[in-house]
Structure of DUF2066 domain-containing protein:
Amino acid sequence: MTRRQPVLIWLGAATIVRMLLAVAVVWCASAMAAAGADLYRAQTVVTGQDEANRIIGFAFCLEDVLIKVSGAQKLAGDRRLAAYKSNAKSFVRAFNYRDQFLGKPVRDEQGTRDRPYDLTVDFEEKKINGILKALGLKPWLSHRPRLAVFVEMENGTRDFIVTVDGAQSDLQRDALLAAADRRGMNIVLPSMAALAKSGLEGAKLETVPSSGLAPLATEQGGEVALVGHLVWSDRELGWITRWRMDWQGRTHRWQVRRVTFDEAFRRGIGGAAQILSDNGDPGGRARH
């Protein structure tokens, strides 16, 4: 009996290992399935829960989901989507509301009709894929590289890089994360300590070559560096934005003018997604 005990213990350990591996496989599969399902989900803000505003919300979310699933930022504002958006309800699998004023008393006689709600919409995967096929596109379901995003904001005498922990970039950080979620991308931002350590604190990002950002991007957990420079223009009443990303031996550059920084971030991250998903260059021809 004494000689058999190690065998019994080994058999028990082996069984436990197999069970743990099985659980890990199931967990990973579930995580991947959840990530895939999130691609077919979008959110917008509507007023009240009446059908008229809900239909408008469905149309808005449909465009976002088509861009998110395909990675094709160029679909934004595409006239070909008009027919699909007018019938967006037929592509919806489920939806729900979250009252932004939950727990707060009704402020006037209109009740809940004037309250803002987060409308979350899940679309039928096969139907979305069918629309993309009709548009000459396909779902981007392969690995999506994590973007290390370096954004410099310049407004008069103020000039700073958006970080994960800097107080002065709270609004921009939240907007970047929201833009990434809306375009189905994962991003990482540099910390203030990491910028200081690498000598980039206070640097003009446009003058820093991609090779100079690569080590910091890797250290922060990013796979591809995306660089943005936003300059506020009083004349245009908006941000003038230039983006840059190196991918597969090419430097891609694109720009957008006269927009909010929220829209600039969506165009930046969306443009990166378009390149990575092989849907074309957002700025035209790329440089070798």
About this structure: Residues 38-134 form one domain. The CA atoms of residues 41 and 258 lie 29 Å apart.
